[in-house]
Amino acid sequence: MTVQGWIQILVFFAVLTALTPLLGAYMHRVFRGDAILGSVLGPVERGFYRLLRVDPRQEQDWKGYARSALIFSLGSWLLLYAILRLQGSLPFNPAGFGGAPADVTFNTSSSFVANTNWQYYAGETTMSNFSQMAGLAVQNFLSAAVGIAVVIAVIRGFSARSLKTLGNFWSDLTRATLYVLLPLAFVIALFFVSQGLAQSLSPAQAFTSLEGVKGVITLGPVASQEAIKLLGTNGGGFFNVNSAMPFENASGLTNAVSMLAILIVPAALTATFGRMVGNRRQGWMIYGAMFAFFAVAVAIVYAAESHGSPAQQLAGIHGGNMEGKETRFGIGSSSLFAVVTTVASCGAVNAAMESLTGIGGAIPMANMMTGEVIFGGVGSGLYGMLMFVILAVFIAGLMVGRTPEYLGKKIGAREIKLTMIGTLAVPLFVLIATAAAIASRYGLKSIYNGGPQGFSETLYAYTSQANNNGSAFAGYTGFIQPNAPGNAGSFGITFADLLGGGAMLVGRFLPLVVVLAIGGALAGRKVAPAGPGTMRTDTPTFGGLTVGTILLVALLTFVPALLLGPVVQGLTDRMF
Amino acid sequence: MTALSGPASSAQQPAQGGMPRGHDGSGRPTRSLLEPAILRTALLDSLRKLDPRAMIRNPVMFVVEIGALLTTVVWLVQALGGSISGAGSDPAWYTLTVSVWLWLTVIFGNFAEAIAEGRGRAQAATLRAMRSETTARLRDGGTKNAGELMPGDVVVVLAGEAIPGDGTVVKGIASVDESAITGESAPVIREAGGDRSAVTGGTRVLSDEIHVEITQKPGESFLDRMIALVEGASRRKTPNEIALGILLAGLSLIFLVVVVTLRPFADYAGTATSLATLISLLVALIPTTIGALLSAIGIAGMDRLVRRNVLALSGRAVEASGDVDVLLLDKTGTITLGNRQASEFVPMPGVSERELAEAAQLASLADETPEGRSIVVLAKEKLGIRARELGEHEAEFVPFTAQTRMSGVDLDGVRLRKGAGDAIERWIAAEGGTTPPQLRAELDRIARDGGTPLAVARDNQALGVVHLQDVVKEGMRERFDHLRAMGIRTVMVTGDNPLTAAKIAQEAGVDDFLAEATPEAKLALIREHQEGGRMVAMTGDGTNDAPALAQADVGVAMNTGTQAAREAGNMVDLDSNPTKLIEIVEVGKQLLITRGALTTFSIANDVAKYFAILPAIFASTYALAGSTTGPLDQLNVMNLGTPRSAIISAIVFNALVIPLLVPLALRGVKFRPVGATQLLRRNLLVYGLGGLIAPFAGIKLVDLVVHNLLGA
Lengths: 576, 712
Fold this sequence. Notes:
Chain A contains 20 helices and eight strands.
């Protein structure tokens, strides 16, 4: 570890914390209906409503809201699937790529609609520019907007005083896209272009290197795609090596802005939450709990990567683990990026996750295993966190001698039942999917390495997909692509594609519906005024309790699995 | 209650002390935890409860039982020299040890529940003994078996007879021995009309004769309900219990999947896992501690109330009492002593204080009300006037009536009267005298100061005013401070005018008051608080309290009250002590705290158990050639003897912690009236951090015995 590395990290922490309340306040205004950009974009917003034939003031109950979100996502999925399969006959396809096989496309469509951006394909050898722009980038916006809309609806349920409704999905979706994601993405994309990221519709450029080696450089609308890839915690890169590629991540500066772009919306939503429930400290408590996990994770990964693995030590390699890292970024930035991308359900990477040390790799997995609630996905991170808060309120809230209540609303059996489903269904799915993949010959086909590393690959794959992260121990594969023109002769590994696709859909939409149901149940509940006998939920004590609950309820589930994967590797100098 | 109740109101209950009697002060014997008879029955019961049909109601312990059953089968096969594919190749002694401790885990859990039930059952037996089969004499002639009485039947009960069923006295007055249900040996007065008309089946009439209209259906009497309650037969799960049950079932399910998927994970790593070991891991991880003690905690909570002589008609009400935000307390009898005390003689011009005091004392000699007696006492203490025997004089006492609203004595031709100001004014006017303006002024002054003025007249002359003062019970201010610290606001409800009420409210230290309270005003106040999301508790005894009792979230009816009040409330206080609410609230809170604390403890335990069991299972996984221990053996931080001793230690600790915590579950975690955040921090430290650390020490200790002494 170096002082310089730590300064980078601390500056990043400070900037993120400083920006959180600003964007949080901005989003609060957006969803209250008086956005700062309202005078400019208002007509566009109203135009959308006329186009969609919706009345934005028509309030929906949780079922109506969930139904709209699901129908919209299903429509998105079908459209994306069609575009990807038919890209051979669609325009903007300079390389003449045909559509990927059905199983891979199922996985990819599910991946982008579920805000996961797990990629079994390599962008530059699979996707046409049209697929990238009209298919994937559009979903990068819309899936993120769905997440924001849902969390806003849920917060309304938490803060409502005896109402039945949670807002209007179409209105929230439009506002999230128009006032939050588009302007921010626009600014960031322009910045990226200024820093030298590619932004072009030209076909690949051929070149001859100084050594005389001939090669091609793929170009495309990278900067624009990159901005929303990060901002919407999507993570699906234009290029296969994602943010390690200079055209996708040009410099230390773009690297820092990239990491900020990943965390800023999920972080700021905590401040929006605080404002919406009328107590900003509530937002800071959640931010604090998230930040505590985040900071500790950064410290561990940075320490582990700086130290190197026991096997490297044995081989006499000192000075940290540089395997799979970009020399432009080094260990400090790469460690920070690895944590940023996994605490948020982004999945963009600037280093090879698979090459992390045992402990360095265990932490990103653990980050995802919390259910992506440490900042997490845009919207989904906060609503996932709110479920853990309910659990914390319930388990320990009893200890102050009252029926547990959160924000003045009593937590009853129905909320607990829903919360248990919402928090435990995904871990359950991860364990079962990993077991199925590791125990069957269909699953073993996808594994690249042997021993604990192979196990880690599998565990990482299903953890990442079910939790909608999208980063990978990239040895794990679901799509075999020979280096042939037009992608001829490629085939998918059906088992991995379907199981992973299913994991992403379940991991996205089950908690989404459940949390809306919780919001709906709480919306109608009376608010009891806080007194000295009420457990306060905006204190460091409660923040610590929330952290403890996540550790004990979510992470304990994965301790055996983590032991057999990354932890074994962290404890042995044996090579596998 | 009006501002001026008659000095001679009938059948005053003896004033209850401000502090409740200790819960062991009841007539019923207190039962210690370890009474041999209860222990013996509990042991038998804990075996009887192994019936899977009963176990399935507790999913956590049901999982343990299934696990115990499976390991037993495996052991039987192993002992007979066979093997089951997939069960692993453990030595038979190991499988046997595991299965024995799993069975013990289940039995310990059942034992906790049985002990809690046993205490209630012993009480129920006492109660049942008094439900003797009596024959009731009907008023309209004929007899009926007590068990066949229907609502509406009117029975006649004579002195010495047991009252055959719950009902309302419709005629007569009698003293009744209610010690069987209240434990209070002093008889109480029951009379037709008014707020003391309810009688309970099984109690005994000591004097006189009463006609009782039966109000309950056969088998639903107060006594029946009481028996069912203390036995736990009618125990339904409370809302928080249901929610907690869901949480525990969810955790059990996820840990089941953790353990089931561990088999393929371990297979991939080339490590064999035996069934007994996996089941041990499962049982160690699922929250057995709280699962085993959950119902015992609930039963013990009810039991604690019963021992304080409170009958909660539902567990829901007990739980709700922990959530109470606002407490409505009647002024009279709760905040102040039930009766006013004379504190001052205010003579009129030209009358000496002594003259007034003498007259007042004489007028009060026959007045047996506490107010009357306090006048006699004050005269003696302040002016040294001794109460005289009036035997040799020609004295005729004039009792208080609601019409005259005064009482007094005619003594040797002099007529002394004391009573309400306006009544005395009318009396003087009728006698042809005039009242000095000072009288009215004094009457008003005293009323303004929160007191009750009594005017005294001799024939047609106003002598002065006696100042009767409400006396706030000792220690009330501390109790209200205590409640405030718990986050509960107290509201005093009184029929007094706002001035008087404000004065007393201030003196007693309540947060708020409702003056000139009518039943409607009370109901409206409760509704208003509930609209604001607050939970309201109140006590009441009169029929006119019934609507408010029913509306309140926690309505505690006094046992001395009317049947209507007892039906409307969701708790009955057998001691008829209104300050009992404070204890009820504490019991409710204790109940929730105990559940929360043990849940936190139970979940926090898992960390240590992982550290015991996982390194044991994977001790040799990925070992280098020639070595028996692999990298994960480094995680054996407790340095447990062998993999098998480690696993056995973990489940032995897991089982033993249940009986160790039974006393805590039955007694309840102590409630401290400090702010919620402070309470949370404290309990988190004790049960959260304690739960994290304690099992490390416990498991290590067991391992020292199992490995070092027994050689496992």
